[in-house]
Design brief:
Layout (H helix, E strand, L loop, with lengths): L17 H9 L3 E2 L1 E7 L2 E7 L3 E4 L4 E7 L5 H6 L2 E6 L5 H8 L12 E3 L5 E3 L4 E13 L2 E12 L7 E4 L2 E4 L3
């Protein structure tokens, strides 16, 4: 079987570096989520593509967050947070929560207070409220491990993806 010409045959070894890691993960399509929490001065949130299902019993997830991120102080102290899976119709919402200095919860962002005071975004494909169980140091980030305590998976639509440095939709 012949490999397509645009695929790389593993032959050249490059030492690990931040640039190599970024380059490799630009090729990895990931679902787009927004993580929210209640901070001392109001709701906080950020766009994440590092969301991972850890286990089903108990239902646990993980994600990475930079310790220099504006949301980190609230995430570092909160007991509960929200996980929101975005649909392909929510590219602008994803961009808003990824933009530094943006007023992420101002109009047109539609949201409400949910269980445990967690800010919940409207119109998402699915959401969870989770209880934080661990914050694990990982370089200039923390891996947050949280147990789902409730949520809703009945939103309609197709997922928003992040690939090659931009938001994308699934192809038919």
């Amino acid at each position: 079987m012949t490999a397509p010409s645009d695929l790389v045959t593993p032959t050249a070894f490059q030492p690990a570096s931040p640039g190599l890691l970024r380059s490799v993960f630009r090729r990895h399509a990931a679902g787009v989520a927004v993580i929210t929490a209640r901070g001392a001065r109001g709701p906080v949130g950020f766009t994440a593509t590092s969301l991972t299902s850890v286990c089903a019993e108990p239902p646990m997830i993980s994600f990475g967050v930079g310790t220099g991120a504006s949301s980190w102080p609230a995430i570092s102290r909160t007991e509960h947070l929200g996980i929101h899976l975005l649909g392909e119709h929510q590219e602008e919402l994803a961009a808003t929560f990824a933009r530094s200095g943006a007023d992420r919860f101002a109009a047109p962002t539609a949201w409400r207070d949910g269980p445990q005071g967690v800010p919940l975004l409207d119109g998402v494909l699915a959401w969870l409220v989770c209880r934080v169980v661990a914050r694990v140091p990982a370089g200039d980030h923390r891996i947050v491990v949280a147990e789902a305590v409730g949520g809703d998976s009945t939103g309609a639509g197709r997922p928003l993806l992040y690939h090659e440095g931009r938001f994308n939709a699934l192809r038919d």
